[in-house]
Amino acid sequence: MTAPATGRGPLALVESPVQLLNVLEWSHIHPPTAVAAPRPGAAPSAPGGGPVTGPLTVVVLSPRDPMSRGQLRRMAELARDDGVTVRWFEARSNRLGLLRTAMTLAPLLLRVRHLVIGDPFSRLVQVLLPLCRAREITVVDDGTATMEFTEILSRGGRLVRWHRAGRRSPVDAAFAVFASAARRRLTPGRRRTVELFSAMPATPPAGMALRANRFAWTRSRFGPPRITAGTDIIGTSLVETGVVDLDRYLAAVATLAESHGATRYFAHRREDTAKLHRLAVQTGLEIVRPDLPLELVARRGPIGHTVLSFPSTVVHTLPLALAGTGVKVVVRDIDDGWLTHTASPRAQGFLSGITGTARDLHGLTSVTATA
After folding, report:
1. pTM of the model
2. What is the DSSP letter of 354?
3. Of the candidates 100, 113, 109, 101, the residue with the CA atom closest to the CA atom of residue 131
């Protein structure tokens, strides 16, 4: 595979459909700048005059799970429709996949001026970052992990996701050197600027620019949706990440469905098929496996007049994507008793923080076990 040619435009590294969506949102408010050819005999531009920008190139570092791959391919189609160059890399295909990807991308990473990344916690991204000499770096949302990312940069900790805290495997130790280097590279300094493009309630460290993601591209491209009289439930992968007990989660979904008359369950792309089958049998809910990120699916419609969600990224993004439609987003908090014995000690506080900030920023309401 040959390296993608981007000219002098920005390069984005993405690994999930949500990351690619947020790169498109970023690109929507950062259109390519047309640069006039220099006049004959004109002096060259002085250093610091601003980088020359051009069309965006997206490099997809493909995940393994089928649902993520399917959604990414659909998102890639939308990106190409918008004039974005998309290159697909099977970096996880085998043990040599990452090495081949790094060797192919190295020339491009060495010369790109503006790098956009969707997951600073990704080991793939952390391995590739030392190859990059970009003077401008933008970090777009990868969900609630953005809140953790800015907190880690502020306090100087390891770039490790919140739900893995306290469990350090030999593999984690082996990649620690890359994680440390990535944290330094993503910290603003004299030689680089770092921008955060986010819809989350993240507080960037000193020197990092913050630009709010209002899902302008999504709202301009899709909708307004047809709104049904029903109630929809949004699934979560907290069981799959080992945070929430399976049986407690299934019971909670059943209670929500019965008490609110819900008929559909929008599955998270990483939810286990066997778990979803059990849920359908026990609750009678129609299981919907979206072909695009939920923000686009909801905006495209049809969508229920009420959407119930557990603490997750969508309690912050759906109110923005569905602004002005009248759809009500409601949060179901995670009870302490649902957490597994292996869950991070920080899990409950982190999840409660997601709900609390959604109530403050978007006026969301919460429901309890008996509501």
Report:
1. 0.88
2. H
3. 109
